[in-house]
């Protein structure tokens, strides 16, 4: 096969990237696949025994795995929707203030500056049943206080903590999208007798659609793979009630020493995310085609 | 009868008075052009009329009704923006239907009006496209279409052609003029291009620092400029101005002679000078001449230049086309 100089040059320029991918991605991936198919513990890490798909069978049959999947999915979807909803509302209602006084933006961004594991630890103190100030004052003033961290409430406590920390991120994305809508477009709509409400629904939100999709996607991924703030706040939680998929993998790896199963679970998580991404790409292509056809 | 009346309208941004106090009457069906240099307040004045900017004082009325406090959507005006301001996520059809939808027009009548406007503007082929799939000229036509469908009392244009190339600008100019003849509606048009102003306007309003320097037909402004500012602003190349003793001899502070009213003469002329450079535009040429006391003068002549740089020539002004101005720049008649 002959190649043009451009093709040869292209290959040459691609070489470092390919080398990088091989070194940093394919080696761990290879190890992952081998471990996923082996019986391996900390003692036998250098001599894994290939056992075929047995690890996958064990993981798929483990109710804790499914509980963790369900937790992560629910957590990811709920926090993404709440964060984006709040972020969007804030971006729209605060835009006159924020665009006039830039420093307010820094204030709103503050929660994002704290490491998530620190946030987890902090709330663990603040909400602690006996030592925490919040339950203390609630009991003092109202005579009773919800047990924020028990099996029934832990999920919602975590959702609130996650939302408080990451709504600013969604806000930032929406703020940028909102202020980049040209003023003349709003003026044109106002001249066309659109009310503020109509401008929001018919002009502004559709123009921010791409940003909304991206924000939902990013926040879902971040929520789905949540680890550090949950780990800091409740760990796996009472009766495993707050075991996210990442915590499941961590626990079976380090605590259970079932390396093969942990890696098999991570491979499953990877495959699931591939399916979701591929599905999203197919859906987008279909929508685009329908729009072109119309 | 005046359709749009501005009565002592003024506008202040913070401490900056952009429009001191302005009176203007615009008749029904008139094509009025606001011209002036950049920053003279043309857009501000247009936006005050549109209701996109609040007045700091004075009254605006449309068809006899005081609309000073009326929100922009309810003044019955349509505006075409310099950036077109099309809704990027809607097709051309949806863009043009939007103003009708907002007033609750029926589906059938909306569709009919959009089709009509599209036919007038030659947009029928593009109805299902999005603005990003159109050329600049086509986008501008969509913006005009969106204005037409509402059948407004008056159209407001803010430099609608300034983003187009010269050839397209010329043809769009004609289209807007044709549209004005067809619709017979009032149009207010902002531009800083004096060719657009001269060719399109029934009446021109010359603005300078928010003050009206003169209002009149293009012919009036050209033949009888009220002051030096208008005289220099209307006409290209710019009017020649001569001060000092030559002007004093004619009882003026400054005199002005348009380049087309200066002749190169054989033998003895009024002024002697040497040619600095010539600009050949094909159909006409501009000759820049340095004349001792009279300073640097531009002569406009038909066809190719008959002189070349360095030539010594004589110039004479045409009889009766010399404008005289006093020390404030006001025209002396
Ligand atoms: N929102 C505003 N805030 C403060 N000053 C403003 C505002 N809008 C306009 N100005 C000022 O008002 C003056 C007139 O502006 P305007 O946009 O009306 O000029 P223009 O004649 O349309 O100029 P151009 O030909 O460049 O468009 C300018 O000095 C400008 O700085
Ligand atoms: Mg302007």
Automatic annotation (TrEMBL), chain A:
Q: Which organism is it from?
A: Aliirhizobium smilacinae
Membrane-spanning ranges:
12-37, 65-93, 105-126, 154-178, 230-250, 262-283
Q: Does the keyword Transcription regulation apply?
A: no
Q: Where is this protein chiefly located?
A: membrane
Topology of this chain in the membrane: Multi-pass membrane protein
Name where it's found.
Answer: Cell membrane
Q: Which GO terms describe its cellular component?
A: plasma membrane
Q: Which CDD domains match?
A: TM_PBP2
Which protein is depicted? Sugar ABC transporter permease
Q: Which UniProt keywords apply?
A: Cell membrane, Membrane, Transmembrane, Transmembrane helix, Transport
InterPro entries for this protein: MetI-like, MetI-like_sf
One biological process GO term for this chain?
transmembrane transport
Q: Does the keyword Transmembrane apply?
A: yes
From TrEMBL, chain B:
Task: Give the record's membrane topology.
Answer: Peripheral membrane protein
Instruction: Tell me yes or no: is tRNA-binding among this UniProt entry's keywords.
Output: no
Q: Which residues cross the membrane?
A: none
Could you confirm whether the keyword Coiled coil appears in this record? no
GO MF annotation: an example: ATP binding
> Which ranges carry the ABC transporter domain?
4-234
Q: Which UniProt keywords apply?
A: ATP-binding, Nucleotide-binding, Transport
Q: Taxonomically, which superkingdom?
A: Bacteria
Q: Give the subcellular location.
A: Cell inner membrane
| Classification via InterPro entries | AAA+_ATPase (IPR003593), ABC_transporter-like_ATP-bd (IPR003439), ABC_transporter-like_CS (IPR017871), ABC_transpr_MalK-like (IPR015855), ABC_transpr_MalK/UgpC-like (IPR047641), Mo/tungstate-bd_C_term_dom (IPR008995), NA-bd_OB-fold (IPR012340), P-loop_NTPase (IPR027417)
Q: Name one GO cellular component term.
A: ATP-binding cassette (ABC) transporter complex, substrate-binding subunit-containing
Task: Tell me one Pfam family matched here.
Answer: ABC_tran
Q: List the PANTHER family hit by this protein, alphabetically.
A: MALTODEXTRIN IMPORT ATP-BINDING PROTEIN MSMX, MALTOSE_MALTODEXTRIN IMPORT ATP-BINDING PROTEIN MALK
Family in the record: Belongs to the ABC transporter superfamily.
State the protein's name: ABC transporter ATP-binding protein
Task: Please give the organism.
Answer: Aliirhizobium smilacinae
